[in-house]
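Predict both folds.
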Amino acid sequence: MIELGLSRVSRLLQQTPLSWKAIHIAGTNGKGSISAYLSNLLAAGGVRCGRFTSPHLIDRWDCITIGERVVQESLFRQIEDQVKHRDQTLGIGASEFELLTATAFEIFNHERVEVGVVEVGMGGRLDATNILSNVLVSVIAKIGMDHQAFLGSTIEEIAREKAGILKPSVPCVVDNTNDAAVLNALSNRVEELSINATFTSPDEVTVQLPPLAKFFEEVDLEPHQQQNICCAVSALRVALSEIRPGADVFSLLPHLAQVVWPGRLEKLSLQPLIAREEPALLDGAHNPQSAAVLGKYVDRKLRPDSGPVTWVVAASSGKDLAGVFRTIIRPGDNVATAEFGPVDGMPWVQATKATDLAMSLRSIPQIGRVESFEGELLPAITWANEVAQGQPLVIAGSLYLISDVHRLLRDAHK
């Protein structure tokens, strides 16, 4: 069950002053990538850095990294047990995400990180991570329609909720490629707080950050990757001006080419699960905005040299199925609808039934073969591979689906 609010996590951490400074990131899309770029750059610059993102990929603790390495399971469980004991002793009744947030923050203390890069779980204003007080810079990534039941029914309401991480006297960086209504809502909040704000995008980078413009000329990046890097580098400049005055931010740019964020345009071999030499494309696109990005990439990079694309898709219950899948699946494409398994630590997350998803997709005009696979994921991947016959294979629709693919691969390699 999702329960937004700061009172419970405040009580969990009231006896534990946080010993590190934070970079706080909110948004609908891109905040995970921005977090990865930032923590990588900070580590490259000699800053002891922790990162907390959500959801986890395979194991609950892999959402917490120290110095770009996943925290050790033994340390995670040790501190998690302490946090859960505190929760029970004080009768707080914290949610799973609040317990996880407190565990991450305690681990940052334990590991003596200098900067913690923290991604908002949902929204911003009432998200558990908004307990942060010693913030170097706040970042607002791309905002779209998502979690309307909790954040509001309009894009302006959602933007105001996410702008809830902005704090007096704390500078912020905003993705300036957001819709006009979003930018207006964010600008109003910036003005109310009288804080310094940098609105950044690839279009303005030549003027704002000339060395970054040169980097974009040399490295092949997708438009949304450029947007996220603009936000990360702008935020890094603000953060380092506080903790490493005079540091050469732009000397760190080459490290960006090495950053890989699983589940975002990820090319992955599925051997030995299936007999396929060509890599599959994995993407956790789960809302219309991220699906549009995926669709453009597939159309530009995968379709020109081949026939139809074969998909393996799944979705969380309650998602806008038409808004996600009608922007990426084309006439003639073949689709295996699947279901992801239980999500550790997030019992409220349920998969849309594969049969219901298949029924929705069959209404797409001139769609190819559609088969539903309830229960285990591997039969869906096997069928899709046989239908694809070496042509493009894409697995998409949910980060939880991507997690299950990685888990299957890990188990197969044991």
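Second protein follows, with its predicted structure tokens after the sequence.
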Amino acid sequence: MEKFFKLQERGTTVRKEVVAGITTFLAMSYILAVNPGILGSIPGMPANSVFTATALAAAIGTLVMAFAANLPVALAPGMGLNAFFTYTVVFGMGYSWQTALTAVFLEGIVFIILSFFNVREAIVKAIPANLKKAVAVGIGLFIALIGLANAGVVSNETGTIIGFAALKGPALVAVIGLIITIALYALKVPGSILIGIVLTTVIGIPFGVTSVPEGFTPVSLPAAPLFCKFDFSSVLTIKFFTVFFTFFFVDVFDTVGTLVGVTAQAGLSDEEGNIPNVKQALLADAVGTVAGAALGTSTVTSFVESTAGVAAGGRTGLSSVVTALFFLLALFLAPLFLLVPGAATAPALIFVGFLMMKSVTGINFEDPTEGIPCFIAIIVMPFAYSIAEGIVWGVLAYVLVNAVTGKFKKISVITWILFVIFLLRFFLK
């Protein structure tokens, strides 16, 4: 282990790596409750099958990251991407979940190819930096809105477009859970999101929100995943390309942003911010995504919660191995995770929105050619209830406002290509 993971070289020990791996799992294991709740709302995608796919995909992606890149970064189906999969692609655009899985699968295949030829890094550099940050912020608002709506905290029952509903039942439990989660996070309690979910689930029992079935047992054999349920019939349409590109776009920047943040915190990146073994790290993300789609879940990506493990001392892929082993162990605890009601996962969704909101501080709103496209991308996502529309209108606004002001040099060739594709989308519907 010393030679392979370079423990001494990175100033760590086996004990530190084990503690870090457990810490990372506790920080991100809420995905085992949240992801089946989101994707499981789609008819034909049983929550227990999604749970199996979530745990297996997380373990596979994290193990590849550990052994190929030797980084303390864990992967799992990403927040935001699962919401886009469910609420935009399936419920909004009317695609079947099989077609959505096909888009995720093809995205992963393309990622693997691009990772080998170093194209992914080139695409990242071609997209405006401020717009990347705006996408994260918009997704955060979108996720928070989903959490509020799923718990019944906001609705249109007040007669307005949207407003606060009566705080009772699931809505009241969700608000209590959000307060608990905020308090735990402010007190810097490790695994605050997961602990918040657990406490909210327990609080929901006397409110009749959490339903414990008779003869409940927390341990069971894993359900069969939705293996290779693909539908390639729509892949040659412009509409499908928009779906594919949105998965692609969000995953690229979510992964790269997470890798930059985690490696910087761990002191592993150089003075210019270059990520060690970045090619292998991006490949791990791509392999995880392909495996996840084949098993029946949305895009797998690097989790920013890995920073919790880094804070606990994690510096190598050994901590990722530990995290992956805990995801495999969780396969046999599906009934326990699936007991969690929507009112208990809603605070997690809302709070993840807060975490993603931090990117707004890095956006240059003083320059209208930067600020206006970012503003449009941010507001369109929650208001149109679509991550895809936010990205489309953000790119369109960026090209138009810079072209009108004569700043053609700011617009890359790739951005122009996207602009044309997105314009054609309106005429080819």
